[in-house]
Q: What sequence folds into this?
């Protein structure tokens, strides 16, 4: 078994959706949402997909703490990585969310479970920034390199620079901000659909970083970290190939990604990734209609167990 990495948590939190549906409050700036064309029993399909994904992760040796998303006012509760994050040393952050109904996803029972099962020293709550229109949607807005302490962040309304600077100061990350958009000019709404930082690799849609000099800086920084870069096309990004997360399984690193994402990868890319982790495709096509994929459904626990 390989040595555990601080980049790849062995335990995660997931929220199983009971009332999954279109979130009209997030549709304006999330070009990945495809819910308009969806047909019947969305909630039932999403529930079954999520349950199967949890089972597959558990079978791979990942500890999954499952919470039930029973509030009909929180259609995006299946994406808990946006409202909180955890950090080595016992630190927890709670984030300010742009959509009013997404603010309802914050749950004290999740925080209490973390305090009970893991060593939590402090909880820093940034949600008070919301009335001032300052948003930072967690590890959706930021892709965190826990090894080299870098917070990669694509510019968007969901990634306010003031909130980002405050988080990075408190949690000892260096912010690296960049503009990113698709070929139609639509900004990338969350950084974690554009890139995934693993222990030994990075998956990134680098061509979508619109400032070429900043793109070169980002790629240079990633290469300096010693990671292998897997460059993704815009089409692969649209199919959620960048929305993956490295976890620690029973037998070593596991790369959790969707079946949609896996099918979008070229064989050479799959081989590149397999040299670092076991690929674990999870089939969640209904959930993906809401504009997020596997990474968005998983909140990693970077805390020491009690």
A:
């Amino acid at each position: 078994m390989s040595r555990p990495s601080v980049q790849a948590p062995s335990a995660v939190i997931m929220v199983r959706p009971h009332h999954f549906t279109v979130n009209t409050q997030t549709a304006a700036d999330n070009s990945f949402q495809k819910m308009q064309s969806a047909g019947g029993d969305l909630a039932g399909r999403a529930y079954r997909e999520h349950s199967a994904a949890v089972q597959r992760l558990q079978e791979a040796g990942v500890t999954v703490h499952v919470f039930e998303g029973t509030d009909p006012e929180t259609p995006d509760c299946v994406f808990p990585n946006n409202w909180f994050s955890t950090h080595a040393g016992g630190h927890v952050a709670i984030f300010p969310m742009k959509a009013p109904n997404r603010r309802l996803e914050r749950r004290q029972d999740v925080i209490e479970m973390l305090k009970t099962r893991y060593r939590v020293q402090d909880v820093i709550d940034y949600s008070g920034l919301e009335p001032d229109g300052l948003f930072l949607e967690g590890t959706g807005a930021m892709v965190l390199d826990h090894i080299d302490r870098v917070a990669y962040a694509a510019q968007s309304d969901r990634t306010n620079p003031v909130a980002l600077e405050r988080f990075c100061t408190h949690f000892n990350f260096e912010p690296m901000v960049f503009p990113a958009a698709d070929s139609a000019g639509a900004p990338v709404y969350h950084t974690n659909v554009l890139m995934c930082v693993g222990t030994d690799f990075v998956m990134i849609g680098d061509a979508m970083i619109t400032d070429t000099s900043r793109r070169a800086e980002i790629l240079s920084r990633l290469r300096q970290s010693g990671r292998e870069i897997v460059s993704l096309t815009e089409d692969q990004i649209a199919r959620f190939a960048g929305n993956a997360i490295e976890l620690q399984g029973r037998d070593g690193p596991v790369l959790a990604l969707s079946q949609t994402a896996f099918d979008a990868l070229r064989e050479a890319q799959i081989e590149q990734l397999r040299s670092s982790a076991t690929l674990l495709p999870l089939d969640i096509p209904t959930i993906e209609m809401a504009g997020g994929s596997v990474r968005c459904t998983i909140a990693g626990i970077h805390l020491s167990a009690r």
